């Protein structure tokens, strides 16, 4: 397991397991909301 700190991350966590990425960051959640509101999701 490797831990890295990203100073650009607003909060939450981004987890990579092999080729899969699980984005629980605030930035990721805001991006999902933006796409949902814009109807591009």
Could you explain the architecture of this structure?
With 41 residues, the protein is α+β, with helices and mostly antiparallel strands. Helices cover 32% and strands 20% of the residues. It has one helix and two strands. It has a two-stranded antiparallel ribbon. The radius of gyration is 12 Å and the shape is flat. The relative contact order is 0.18. The mean pLDDT is 87.
Short recap of the structure:
By secondary structure, this protein is of the alpha+beta class. The chain has 1 helix and 2 strands; from the N terminus they run E-E-H. 32% of the residues lie in helices and 20% in strands.
Mean model confidence by pLDDT: 87
Helix-strand string = EEH
Number of DSSP E strands = 2
Rg from Cα: 12 Å
Give the biggest beta sheet. 2 strands, antiparallel
Strand content: 15-25%
Going by helix content, strand content and strand pairing, the class is: alpha+beta
Indicate the overall shape. flat
As a percent range, the share of helical residues equals 25-40%
| Tally of separate helices | 1
Strand order of the largest sheet: 1-2
Instruction: List low-pLDDT spans.
Output: none
N-C termini distance: 32 Å
């Amino acid at each position: 397991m490797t831990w890295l700190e990203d100073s650009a991350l607003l909060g939450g966590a981004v987890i990579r397991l092999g080729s899969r990425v699980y984005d629980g960051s605030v930035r990721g959640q805001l991006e999902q909301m933006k796409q949902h509101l814009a109807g591009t999701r």
